[in-house]
Write a structure and sequence with these properties.
alpha/beta, globular
């Protein structure tokens, strides 16, 4: 559909709309009144998107021949920075004026095993001829299917006490709804740069667990567990799987600039409010994959 003369082009094409982040971002885009089309490569993805209000288009980013040849103003790539080259090809084929790609704050985390390839994928996006905004969310939580805090809550609920962790590095978890706000602002006021998308302030994992325990009515263990010895032991093991790596990263500060310092206008959601909202979404899906 062509945009009527005199009106700004508000056609949006989204990849990864059936992802956990897409569960929150796609309805937020539709709510603005924009014409939103979402790529779906499977019947399962299409089913997830049925209630989003977006138009669904069958295509597989891993096969260039299946990419659509429609026109759109902005491509919003939620399908992962690993598929950044495919997102560029999609933007070219649709004659998009702007590409917004979701990357990962792991790109700025020294020692992270994925850092090298993420930075390389970002470099290729920046060097393309298409005006590109790269957003680097920190630890995303609050989607009904998020892979971070939802899993943490599920694990904590199986324990007799929530552990009381002391010390360790600080992180800035970000509510999925705030990532959606960052995407919306990037459409309305494009910043062609690589921009962190974080929560309002740095917190330790121990504080996150404390907030979850308070909001969910969990009992916390009476004896504190210092994080530093756990991190030292994990480092002795080397890189032996995701669980070991997760413990290693507990000792590292992963602090980025807060939203207002990088030019966003939306007020970031504080952790207590975000966790309370997240728990209402997690309840029916804690045991699902």
């Amino acid at each position: 559909m062509k945009t009527p003369p005199g009106e700004p082009d508000r056609t949006l094409l989204v990849t990864g709309g059936s992802s956990p982040l897409g569960d929150v971002v796609v309805p937020s885009l539709v709510a603005t009144g924009a014409r939103v089309t979402v790529l779906a490569r499977s019947a399962e993805a299409e089913q997830r998107l049925q209630s989003s209000g977006a138009q669904i288009l069958h295509a597989d980013l891993s096969h260039f021949d299946s990419l659509p040849v429609i026109e759109t103003a902005t491509v919003i790539h939620l399908a992962g920075i690993k598929l950044g080259d495919a997102a560029l090809e999609l933007a070219r084929r649709t004659r998009a004026q702007h590409l917004i790609a979701i990357s990962s704050a792991s790109a700025s985390a020294l020692g992270h095993p994925d850092r090298t390839w993420i930075l390389e994928a970002e470099r290729r996006l920046r060097q393309s001829a298409i005006s590109t905004t790269i957003l680097r969310p920190t630890m995303i939580y609050g989607s009904p299917r998020d892979r971070n805090v939802r899993r943490l809550v599920s694990m904590l609920r199986r324990l007799p006490f929530a552990p009381r962790l002391v010390g360790g590095g600080r992180i800035m978890p970000v509510l999925a709804d705030d990532v959606a706000k960052a995407v919306l602002e990037s459409i309305q006021r494009p910043m062609f740069d690589t921009i962190p998308v974080a929560g309002p302030e740095p917190v330790t994992m121990g504080h996150i667990i404390e907030v979850i325990a308070e909001a969910d009515g969990m009992r916390q263990a009476p004896i504190p567990i210092p994080v530093r010895p756990l991190v030292k032991f994990a480092k002795l093991l080397g890189h032996r799987g995701k669980a070991v790596h997760a413990i290693q990263m507990l000792g590292q500060d992963r602090i980025v600039a807060s939203p207002e310092k990088v030019g966003f206008h939306y007020p970031p959601t504080d952790l207590e409010t975000g966790i309370a909202l997240a728990l209402t979404r997690y309840n029916p899906s804690l045991t699902s994959r």
